[in-house]
Amino acid sequence: MDLAARLKPRQLRLIQRIGETRQLQSAAHMLAMSQPAASRVLAEIEAEVGAPLFLRHPKGMEPTLVGETFLRHARVILSELESLETEVAGLRSGEAGEVRVGSVTGPTVGVLVPAIQAVREAAPGIQATIEVGPSTQLVRGLEEGRFDFVIARLPPEYDSRQFRIYPARNEVIALVVRTGHPALGAPRRLAELRAYEWVIQDLGTPIRVAMDGAFHAAGLAAPDQITNSSSLLVVLSILAGTDAIAPQSQEVAEVITRNRIGDSFAKLELADPLAVAPYFVIHNRSQQMNRAAERVMQEVFRRL
Question: Which InterPro entries does UniProt cross-reference here (predicted)?
Answer without folding.
Answer: HTH-type_LysR_regulators (IPR050950), LysR_HTH_N (IPR000847), LysR_subst-bd (IPR005119), WH-like_DNA-bd_sf (IPR036388), WH_DNA-bd_sf (IPR036390)
